[in-house]
Write a structure and sequence with these properties.
The protein is α+β, with helices and mostly antiparallel strands. The chain has helices at about 80-95, 125-140, 150, 210-220, 220-245, 250-270, 280-295, 320-330, 350-355, 395, and strands at about 15-20, 25, 30-35, 40, 45-50, 55-65, 70-75, 75, 110-115, 165-170, 180-185, 195-200, 300-305, 310-315, 335-340, 365-370, 375-380. It has a domain at about 1-185 and about 380-395: Ribosomal Protein S5, domain 2 (2-Layer Sandwich). It contains ten helices and 17 strands. The structure holds ligand DP6.
Length: about 400
């Protein structure tokens, strides 16, 4: 039985601060077989993105003097959601099993978290957020071993953000979900030439959340069942091989086909969930036209539950695609290209003439240049988001 340790007034709070990355699925997770435990109907594979451009940062601490669990997200105190509480409880249950945890799991916690990218961009922030929360709490309680099972309880895709590089979420078969874990297929250093362009589409329409959308799909889409049983298992094996071989054309084709099938499932859902907009379709068309004129697959698009395109390509092709995106989708606003330093090539008039594309000025707000990155990182005391009393620093500024 755990001994309740009292904290004396001289003792200082233990603060832990971590960052965790965003991940982009190339084989999509869509549909749960168990809503509470967040168990998927199929395996998925993702690429973890560099934390330089996008990450979540979280500080956690616990104290016997705290009266309730408190979570500040992007400077706002959160109303506790079922997911958040379940995730926290699951971490605490694990901490109780540790012989002598450095921090008493019965104490209430304070959590302060922020993203370094605008949530308005519609980029999946919950994966990085939950991966970061769980990583920081595990460090606080000294929970070692796989943390993907715990992150999964917050948000399915979060389990893939606890590892860097290329990650496989194995759906598992157990009813209790203990074998529904993420494993790293290869580290970020495996494929150094791979680059990612996040094309942020201008779109303020309110979209159906992933959770609600996939629930509707499970209930109404016959295509989802077919996809999970007959398409994803083979595609997953092929994708693992393509990543191992660093075979870009195979990787690209599988990525695009899987994104297309995921959106076909969304269309097959009743009522349909529509996530793509005119700019999304134009970006897909441009990628297909360039692949066709290159007589090779040089780029691949993938779309999550929103209109932003995520483009995978090799470093040598980045200047060409940046120039194309600016030409067709920029409205001339500054800072159209963001992120990693990158040059743009000069477009030939003959190429423009050969493409069957109309300009959509403002169709993209900006393009973020990024690459494959590492998993969560533990930061030092200079990076804490809370003071020694466990209050957010932004409150005292
Ligand atoms: C389209 O992980 O956000 O991005 O488990 O309900 O929190 P919940 O869903 P979430 O779904 C992500 C769906 C996706 C595809 C993917 O990332 O695999």
């Amino acid at each position: 039985m755990f001994q309740i340790r009292k904290m004396s007034s001289e003792e200082v709070l233990k603060l832990v601060t971590c960052t965790a990355p965003v991940n982009i699925a190339v084989i999509k997770y869509w549909g749960k077989r168990n809503e509470t435990l967040i168990l998927p109907v199929n395996d998925s594979i993702s690429v973890t993105l560099s934390s330089n451009q996008m990450n979540a940062k979280t500080t956690v601490t616990a104290s016997p003097s705290f009266t309730e669990d408190k979570i500040w997200l992007n400077r706002e105190l959160q109303i506790k959601s079922g997911r958040l509480s379940l995730c926290l409880e699951e971490v605490r249950a694990n901490a109780r099993m540790i012989a002598n945890p450095p921090v008493n799991p019965e104490w209430k916690v304070h959590v302060c978290s922020e993203n370094n990218f605008p949530t308005a961009a519609g980029l999946a922030s919950s994966a990085a957020g939950y991966a970061c929360l769980v990583t920081a709490l595990c460090k606080l309680y000294n929970i070692t071993g796989d943390t993907s099972v715990l992150a999964r309880r917050g948000s399915g895709s979060a389990c893939r953000s606890v590892y860097g590089g290329f990650v496989h979420w194995q759906m598992g078969v157990r009813e209790d979900g203990r074998d529904s874990i993420a494993v790293q297929l290869a580290p970020s250093s495996h494929w150094p030439e791979l680059r990612v362009l996040i094309c942020v589409a201008s779109d303020s329409r309110k979209k159906t959340s992933s959770s609600v959308g996939m629930k509707n799909s499970v209930e109404t889409s016959p295509l989802l069942k077919f996809r999970a049983e007959h398409c994803v298992p083979k595609r997953t094996r092929e994708m693992i091989q393509a990543i191992q071989d660093k075979n870009f054309p195979v990787f690209a084709e599988l990525t695009m086909k899987d994104s297309n099938q995921f959106h076909a499932v969304c269309q097959d859902t009743y009522p349909p969930c529509v996530y793509l907009n005119q700019a999304s379709h134009a970006v897909s068309s441009l990628v297909h036209q360039i692949n066709s004129s290159s007589h090779n697959l040089v780029a691949a698009y993938t779309f999550d539950a929103g209109p932003n395109a995520c483009i995978f390509l090799l470093e040598k092709d980045v200047p060409h695609f940046l120039a194309l995106f600016r030409y067709y989708f920029s409205d001339g606003a500054s800072e159209f290209i963001r992120g990693e330093t990158a040059v743009e090539s000069k477009l030939e008039d003959s190429e423009i003439a050969s493409l069957s594309m109309d300009k959509i000025p403002g169709g993209l707000k900006y393009v973020l240049v990024t690459k494959v990155g590492d998993g969560p990182e533990l930061l030092g005391e200079d990076d804490h988001l809370m003071d020694q009393n466990g209050e957010p620093l932004f409150c005292s500024k």
